[in-house]
Write a structure and sequence with these properties.
Number of strands: 38
Number of helices: 3
Strand content: over 45%
Oligomer: single chain
Helix content: under 10%
Largest sheet: 22 strands, antiparallel, barrel
Radius of gyration: 25 Å
Distance between the termini: 52 Å
C-alpha cells in the first residue's frame, strides 16, 4: 500500500506541472447542469450525481439508478427475490453510511432493501464519498457514504409527473406537488405507485426472472425559514410486496416434494418521521443544529417448497443529534455535539423440518447509545484538515472510541489531492442483512441458533470494526478545447472484526465472526475520465479494481460473486433543439463461485460479460418530455441463477451473478409546470 501511495503522489506532481498552464474553476462538462460533477470544498472528494444522470436510467428506484455508476455498484443477491444490493470499494452496502440530506437514514434492517424503495424520479441529487465520513454523522460508514436529497428546493416545479412502462410488465407513476404557502414556508408532496404485473422466464429455467411486485411510496416535507431559524419537518411511508418462484405456481400456495414448486413471498413497510432545526444567532459566527428521526419498520419473508422457512421482524428506532458549529479564527473552526440512539428489534427465524435449524430462533435487540463528537477544522486557501473523534457508550459494548482525519491539498487550482484515514464500526443485523442468502434449503449454523440462546451481545457476536484509509486525486484541464476531469482513488479497508456468511460447503451456511488477520481486508482502485470530444457530446470512461479477501472455508479467499475488474463507458449527445442520445456500456470481469451441489469441489469462475443500454429523449420548452430506450441490448442472460435438482430435491438461489431477464424495451413521459 505504501508503494501505491508513493506512486500516486508522483503522478500528482507530474500532472500538476501540466495543469499550471490552463486554470479552470468548474468541473462541469457542459454549460447546463452536468449529469455528474465533483465537489472539492470539503475534506474529501465527493461525486455528485444529478437529476440528469437519473434520467439516463428512466426507471425506477434509487438503487437501480446506480447501474450507471462505477463507484457504487448494484447486483442481484439471489435469483428469486429481486433484492438489489449496492456495493462500494468491493464491500456490501451495509458498510456504507446512508443519509438523507445529512440525516441518518435507511439503517438497521432497512439497509438491505431501503434504496430499492426510494423512487429515482423524486431524487434531486446524490453525493457519494469514499472512505470514513464525518465524525458528526456517527461511527458507521466503514467504506463510504451515500447522501441523497429529494426534490425540495424553490427551483423545483409546482407540478411534476412521470410515467414509465416496459415490455416485461413493469409500470410506474410518480407525482410531485410543490406549494409555496408564503415566502418563508414551502411544502412538497410525493406520491409513487409501481407494479410488476407480468411474469417472464427468459432464461427458461422454470422460475420467474423478477418477482411480481406492488410498491407504494408517500412522502411530505415542509420547509421553513425565518431571520434566525431554518428547518424542515416531514415523513415518508413505503410498502413493498413481492411474490416469485416457479412460473406455474406463482399464483398458488401449494406445497409439494418437487423443488420446481418453489414459492417466495415478502411484505415490507416502513414509516420515517424526521425534523431538522437550525438556529443562527445574530452574530452569525456560531450556529446550532438539531436532527430528530423516528422510524418503524416491519418485514416478513417466506419460502414455500420442501421446507417452510420464514422470517419476521419489527423494528422501532429513534435518533437525535445536536450540533454546534463555530468559527474560532479565520483559519480554525470547530464542530461539536451529542447524539443519542434507541432501537428495539424483535425478529423470528424458523424452518420446517427442524433439521434445517437446530431450533427456531426468536430474539430481541435493544440498543441504547449515547455519544459525543468533536471536529477541528483548519483551512487556508490551499490546505484543509479535519480532525474528528467520537466517544460513545453502548449498552452492549461499553465505551468505544472512533478517530478520523481528512486532509485536502490544492496543489494548484486544477489539481486536488485528498488523504484520509479513520476507524469505523457498526452493529450487524446478521439475519435481515443476509436474507437473499437464506433462499435455499441449506443447513444454517450460527452462535445464535443453538440450544442455549442466553447471549450477552446481539446474535452472540461483537460489532464489526476496521480501519479505512486512502488517497483521492482530481485533475481538471482543457482537452480538445473543452473542460475535462480525471479522478483517481486508491483505498484499503483492514478489518479487526468482520461477520461473514460462509457458503463454501454446498450443504451449509455458516454465520461466522472473523477476528484479526482472518477478518481480512479489501482494496480498491478506481479511475475515471470525463471529457467532451465535440460540442454537446460528453464521454465518461471508468475502470475499477477490487480485492476483497477473507477467511472462507478455512483459507483466505476472494469473496465469492465479486467481479474484481469492471469497466464503464457513458456517451451522451445533445442537439440544439433538446434531443438527447445516451449509450451506456459496462464490462464485468469473472467472478468466483463457491462450491455447487452435485459438482466436484473446485473453484469455479463465471464468464466475462458486457451489458449495453441506450436511450433517446426529447424535451420541449412547454415542460413536456418523452423518452424511450432499451436495456441489455445484447440480450445476455445467466441460465442457472437457481440451482435446482429434482433427483435430490435440492434448491438454492444463491448463485446469481448476472441478469436472468434479457433484452428490455421501455418508454415514458415527464411533464412539469414551473
Amino acid at each position: 500500500m505504501v508503494k501505491r501511495l508513493i506512486l500516486i503522489v508522483t503522478i500528482v506532481q507530474a500532472f500538476s506541472l501540466s495543469g499550471q498552464i490552463d486554470t479552470i474553476k468548474a468541473v462541469d462538462i457542459s454549460t447546463e447542469q452536468s449529469a455528474q460533477k465533483y465537489d472539492t470544498d470539503g475534506g474529501r472528494l465527493t461525486t455528485t450525481i444529478t437529476e440528469n444522470e437519473f434520467k439516463k436510467a428512466a426507471c425506477c428506484t434509487l438503487s437501480e439508478s446506480f447501474e450507471l455508476s462505477n463507484t457504487v455498484e448494484v447486483s442481484n443477491k439471489d435469483g428469486i427475490s429481486g433484492i438489489r444490493q449496492v456495493e462500494m470499494l468491493g464491500l456490501a452496502g451495509k458498510y456504507v453510511l446512508m443519509t438523507q440530506k445529512n440525516m441518518p437514514n435507511l439503517n438497521g434492517i432497512a439497509q438491505l432493501n431501503g434504496l430499492s424503495n426510494i423512487p429515482g424520479a423524486f431524487v434531486a441529487n446524490v453525493n457519494i464519498a469514499k472512505g470514513n465520513g464525518s465524525a458528526t454523522l456517527g461511527y458507521e460508514g466503514l467504506t463510504g457514504g451515500i447522501d441523497y436529497d429529494l426534490k425540495s428546493s424553490a427551483k423545483n416545479p409546482r407540478f411534476f409527473f412521470n410515467a414509465y412502462q416496459n415490455n416485461q410488465g413493469r409500470s410506474e407513476v410518480n407525482l410531485l406537488l410543490k406549494k409555496d404557502i408564503n415566502p418563508n414556508l414551502r411544502n412538497f408532496s410525493y406520491l409513487h405507485g409501481g407494479t410488476q404485473w407480468m411474469t417472464t422466464d427468459m432464461n427458461k429455467d422454470g422460475f420467474t426472472d423478477m418477482p411480481m411486485t406492488d410498491r407504494y411510496y408517500l412522502g411530505n416535507q415542509t420547509h421553513f425559514q425565518t431571520k434566525n431559524t431554518e428547518g424542515m419537518i416531514g415523513f415518508t411511508y413505503w410498502q413493498d410486496n413481492k411474490k416469485a418462484g416457479a412460473t406455474d405456481k406463482i399464483g398458488g400456495n401449494s406445497i409439494t416434494t418437487d423443488p420446481s414448486s418453489f414459492l417466495f413471498r415478502s411484505n415490507e413497510n416502513r414509516l420515517d418521521v424526521f425534523a431538522k432545526l437550525g438556529i443562527i444567532p445574530n452574530e452569525g459566527e456560531t450556529t446550532f443544529g438539531n436532527i430528530f428521526n423516528f422510524s418503524r419498520h416491519n418485514m416478513s419473508y417466506g419460502l414455500n417448497n420442501l421446507i417452510n422457512r420464514t422470517y419476521n421482524a419489527e423494528e422501532s428506532r429513534f435518533t437525535y443529534s445536536g450540533l454546534m458549529q463555530s468559527e474560532i479564527t479565520e483559519t480554525w473552526g470547530i464542530k461539536t455535539g451529542l447524539s443519542f440512539l434507541a432501537t428495539s428489534l424483535d425478529e423470528n427465524l424458523s424452518s420446517e423440518p427442524l433439521n434445517i435449524l437446530s431450533q427456531n430462533y426468536s430474539g430481541r435487540v435493544n440498543e441504547l447509545q449515547f455519544g459525543g463528537f468533536f471536529e477541528g477544522v483548519y483551512a487556508t486557501d490551499e490546505f484543509k484538515m479535519v480532525l474528528g473523534t467520537r466517544l460513545d457508550n453502548h449498552n452492549y459494548y461499553g465505551w468505544v472510541f472512533t478517530p478520523r482525519i481528512h486532509i485536502k491539498w490544492d496543489v494548484n487550482p486544477n489539481n486536488n489531492l485528498f488523504l484520509q484515514g479513520g476507524y469505523g464500526r457498526r452493529q450487524a443485523y446478521v439475519i435481515a442483512e443476509n436474507l437473499p442468502l437464506l433462499i435455499n434449503d441449506r443447513v444454517i449454523s450460527s452462535p445464535f441458533i443453538n440450544e442455549n440462546q442466553n447471549l450477552t451481545n446481539p446474535y452472540g457476536m461483537n460489532q464489526e470494526r476496521g480501519w479505512n484509509y486512502g488517497v483521492s486525486y482530481l485533475k481538471q484541464f482543457m482537452f480538445l478545447g473543452y473542460p475535462s476531469a480525471i479522478s483517481l482513488d486508491v483505498f484499503r479497508n483492514v478489518f479487526d472484526s468482520r461477520i461473514v456468511i460462509d457458503q463454501e460447503t454446498a450443504e451449509n451456511i455458516s454465520f461466522v465472526q472473523l477476528n484479526g488477520k482472518d477478518a481480512g481486508f479489501s482494496e480498491s482502485i478506481h479511475t475515471e475520465w470525463s471529457f467532451m470530444p465535440a460540442m454537446r457530446f460528453e464521454v465518461r470512461l471508468a475502470y475499477r479494481y477490487v480485492n476483497n479477501i477473507q477467511n472462507l472455508g478455512g483459507e483466505m479467499r476472494l469473496k465469492p460473486l465479486l467481479s474484481q475488474h469492471r469497466g464503464l463507458a457513458t456517451l451522451t449527445y445533445k442537439t440544439r433543439n433538446k434531443w438527447y442520445f445516451d449509450l451506456i456500456g459496462s464490462i464485468n470481469g469473472p467472478k468466483r463461485l463457491f462450491e455447487k451441489p452435485e459438482v466436484s469441489s473446485q473453484e469455479l469462475e463465471t464468464p466475462v460479460y458486457a451489458l449495453f443500454n441506450a436511450q433517446i429523449r426529447k424535451n420541449w420548452n412547454s415542460g413536456f418530455e418523452i423518452y424511450l430506450g432499451a436495456e441489455n441490448i445484447g440480450n445476455f442472460r445467466q441460465s442457472d441463477p437457481i440451482y435446482a435438482f429434482t433427483n435430490s430435491n435440492r434448491i438454492d438461489a444463491s448463485y446469481s451473478w448476472g441478469p436472468a431477464n434479457g433484452r428490455l424495451f421501455y418508454f415514458g413521459i415527464r411533464y412539469e409546470i414551473k
